[in-house]
Q: What sequence folds into this?
C-alpha cells in the first residue's frame, strides 16, 4: 500500500510523512529528494537550469517508478498533471494535508534559503494565493482523505491518519 501525501508547499508533507512512516513501519520516500538524488542538483537549480517543464517531467517519471509499500511525500505541484492525478487515484491512498495560507506564509517567511522557485519571497502571500487558486480543486479531486493540519501536532495528525485508513503492508 502506498500512502501519498499531497498539499501546498510547507504544509508539512515531509515531517508528517517521516513521523507516520516510523509509526506504521513503512519506508518513507520524498519525491523532491529522489529528484535531487537523480540529478545531483537542488530543486531550485533544476528549475533554473532546465526549467519547470523538465522538472514536471522527471517528477512524473519518479512518481511512476515507486515500487512497493511506503509513505510518499509528493511535491506541491504533483497534482498539476492529469497523468499524476490518475496515478494517485489508482495506486494508493492519497491524503490531502490542508493548511490555511496564513500558516504556510509564516513558515515560508522563515525559510531562509528561499528554496522554493515558484515563490516570490517579496510577496509570499500573493504567490501562495495564486498557486492555491489553481490547485485547490485538484487536491480535492485526488484525495481519499483530507486532514486539516492547522494547530495540530505531528503525532495528532499521524493518529488521525492511522485511524482513518486500514494500513496494509503490501
Ligand atoms: C513545488 C513544490 C516543492 C517542489 C518544487 C515545486 C510546487 O515541493 O516540488 O519547488 O510546485 O508546489 P514542496 O511542496 O515539498 O515544497
A:
Amino acid at each position: 500500500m502506498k500512502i501519498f501525501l499531497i498539499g501546498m508547499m510547507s504544509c508539512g508533507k515531509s515531517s508528517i510523512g517521516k513521523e507516520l512512516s516510523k509509526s506504521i513501519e513503512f519506508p518513507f520516500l520524498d519525491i523532491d529528494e529522489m529528484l535531487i538524488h537523480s540529478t545531483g542538483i537542488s530543486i531550485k537549480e533544476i528549475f533554473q537550469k532546465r526549467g519547470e517543464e523538465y522538472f514536471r517531467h522527471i517528477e512524473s517519471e519518479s512518481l511512476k517508478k515507486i515500487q512497493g509499500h511506503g509513505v510518499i511525500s509528493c511535491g506541491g505541484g504533483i497534482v498539476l498533471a492529469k497523468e499524476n492525478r490518475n496515478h494517485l487515484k489508482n495506486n494508493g491512498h492519497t491524503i490531502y494535508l490542508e493548511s490555511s495560507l496564513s500558516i504556510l506564509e509564516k513558515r515560508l517567511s522563515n525559510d531562509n534559503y528561499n528554496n522554493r522557485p515558484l515563490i516570490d519571497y517579496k510577496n509570499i502571500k500573493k504567490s501562495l494565493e495564486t498557486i492555491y487558486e489553481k490547485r485547490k480543486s485538484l487536491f480535492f479531486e485526488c484525495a481519499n482523505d483530507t486532514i486539516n493540519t492547522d494547530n495540530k501536532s505531528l503525532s495528532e495528525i499521524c493518529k488521525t491518519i492511522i485511524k482513518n485508513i486500514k494500513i496494509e503492508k503490501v
Summary: The chain has a mean pLDDT of 95. The longest strand covers residues 93-98. Helices lie at 13-24, 31-39, 43-65, 82-90, 101-109, 124-142, 154-164.
